[in-house]
Amino acid sequence: ERQLRAVHLMFDAGRSINPAVDLGQVEGAFLQGVGWVLSEEVLEDPTSGACLTPSTWSYKPPGIAELPAEFSVAMLRDSPLHVPKLQQLGAKGTGEPPLMLAAAVACALQDAVAAAWADREEDRPEQLPVLHLPATTASIKQALPPFLG
């Protein structure tokens, strides 16, 4: 089980042309990144290279269950990195850059895996298993200690 309980984002959109559009773009791109981190596993046939996950019956984009219970987005104001001469009317892109903010979800899951191993002194490996992305149920189970997996 994994659940996003709270997400608080801050994004630098420069001098926004339309703050409502920028807010929606940041929220949407972040949730797209959450899908990439948690569930969007594209499988291919090793022999033919054919896609084995061609539809949402087998390929799982994020749904309503992946929305965090508490989700807030703030836009950075008066950033010292604001260079108006380099951007159209001082605005910065908001369409895809926030996708990378979902890396925080991957880091939190890796920390949770490490915490699960913390009490396992007698059989803890020298190097903890890496949580492979997307962090599907199978991937998480593989990274956890045997008593939890």
Task: Record keyword descriptors for this entry.
two-stranded parallel sheet; iron ion binding; AldOxase/xan_DH_MoCoBD2; 149 residues; oxidoreductase activity; Aldehyde Oxidoreductase, domain 4; Ald_Oxase/xanthine_DH-like; alpha+beta; Aldehyde oxidase/xanthine dehydrogenase second molybdopterin binding domain-containing protein
Annotate the secondary structure layout:
Elements: E1 6-11, H1 19-38, E2 70-75, H2 103-118, H3 137-143
Parallel strand pairs: 1-2
Keywords: Molybdenum
Pfam family, one: MoCoBD_2
GO molecular function: iron ion binding; oxidoreductase activity
- Assign the CATH topology: Aldehyde Oxidoreductase, domain 4
- Please write the string of helix (H) and strand (E) elements: EHEHH
> Into how many domains do the coordinates divide?
1
Largest sheet: 2 strands, parallel
Shape: globular
Portion in beta strands: 5-15%
Total beta strands: 2
Tell me the number of helical segments per DSSP (H or I, 4 or more residues long): 3
Specify the helix fraction band.
25-40%
CATH architecture: 2-Layer Sandwich
N-end to C-end Cα span: 11 Å
Major β-sheet strand ordering: 1-2
CATH superfamily: Aldehyde oxidase/xanthine dehydrogenase, molybdopterin binding domain
Structural class of the secondary structure composition? alpha+beta
C-alpha Rg (nearest Å): 19 Å
Mean pLDDT: 84
Query: Which spans of ≥5 residues are poorly predicted at pLDDT below 50?
Result: none
In CATH, what is the class? Answer: Alpha Beta
GO molecular function, one term: iron ion binding
Pfam families: MoCoBD_2 (PF20256)
Protein name: Aldehyde oxidase/xanthine dehydrogenase second molybdopterin binding domain-containing protein
Domain Aldehyde oxidase/xanthine dehydrogenase second molybdopterin binding: 4-68
